[in-house]
Amino acid sequence: MTTVRKNYGSAMLEAFEYLLAEYPEVFVIGQGLWSPWYVGNTMTDLDKKFGAHRIIDTPVSEAASTGAAVGAALAGMKPIVVHPRMDFMLYAMDAIVNQAAKWSSMVGGQAVPGVTIRGIINRGGEQGAQHSQALHAWFAHVPGLRVVMPATVADARDLLIASVVSGDPVLYIDDRWLYSLEDDLPPVRELVLSEVEPQTLRAGNDVTLVAASYSTKLAMEAAHALQGQGYAAEVIDLRVINPYQPRRIVESVRRTGRLLVVDGGWGPCGLASEVIASVVEQIEPGVLKRAPVRITLPFAAAPTSKVLEKTYYPNTDLIVQKTRELLK
Fold first, then answer.
1. DSSP secondary-structure letter at 178?
2. Which phi and psi angles does 29 have, rounded to 5°?
3. Long-range contacts from 272-277, C-beta under 8 angstroms, 24+ separation
4. Which of 29, 94, 188, 250 is most deeply packed, by most CB within 10 A?
């Protein structure tokens, strides 16, 4: 199989190019789509290649662009809405939560808005509390809305394609901190989104580390550091957080007896809580050797100061420290 070295951002660009070339009903709508500095080169020159009628740069109105996309999806198109900062997707909650996620159940499955909504996480860089939020747990709470969080270069491309092709309302969340991640990228393959499960990125028998998106990168770095200290950590990337499928995680914890979950969101009612609860519900009594551990953001708004940001966001050293405590 021929592979090409690419980064996460250029893999997403490849997904857009594939979808626009293969599916004439695909169009992209959102803010800043014609900008030459568009973050992470994920949409560079798409408007020049496919035309401004398919790459629609809108005025600043998250509600209007998302509502228009939901309507177009109900009319048979496959729109992709881009929100450069997912914080401001909150203006479009009615279109996402009350409309896109509900249509199928309200009309007995006779109409499904196959809209893909791309929300970008832009943490750090002294952007402040209103530009730094990872709100994935909010949306994963909503039935009828698929939520995907690619962590690898291949998933950045293939899960975007799978989201659009699925025909379901999907929230695709990418983290700007991943755009420079590089890996060998095989040829495109169309995945069936409903069949995508968590994947084991690294095998190990001492402890199970579970994460999604950028947190998976941190978990992999921690596992590598732990290997140098004589510990074998298994790393599982969630990939799709709604519907969340815990089977592979439960199987791993049955072997390791220890579970640590890393999440880039807040702790209360969050993704890490859901992962731990699902394991505790399904695991047999006596299997867990220690109480599960979660590493999340402090329960406070993100600081603006660069100095405070360093203490606010979890890092590899913290994961190594907490894992070593769990292994005692």
1. G
2. -140, 140
3. 272/296, 274/137, 274/140, 274/244, 275/210, 275/238, 275/244, 275/246, 275/249
4. 29
pLDDT in tens, 201-251: 999 999 999 999 999 999 999 999 999 999 999 999 999 999 999 999 999
Amino acid at 156: A
Give the max Cα distance, the chain: 60
Would you give the end-to-end CA distance of the chain in angstroms? 43
**CA dist., res. 266 & res. 249, Å (int):** 21
Closest CA to 151 of 212, 235, 242: 212
Q: What is the mean pLDDT of the chain?
A: 95
- 242 φ, ψ (degrees, to nearest 5): -150, 115
Q: What is the rounded average pLDDT of the residues 25-37? A: 89
For residue range 285-306, list pLDDT tens digits in order: 999 999 999 999 999 999 999 9
* β-sheet bridge partners, residue 56: 29
Name the residue type at position 205: N
**Mode of pairing for the β-strands spanning 182-185 and 207-211:** unpaired
Strand partners, 240: 148
Q: Is the Cβ–Cβ distance between 302 and 239 less than 8 Å? A: no
Residue in this structure with the two tokens 């968590």, named with its chain if needed: 198
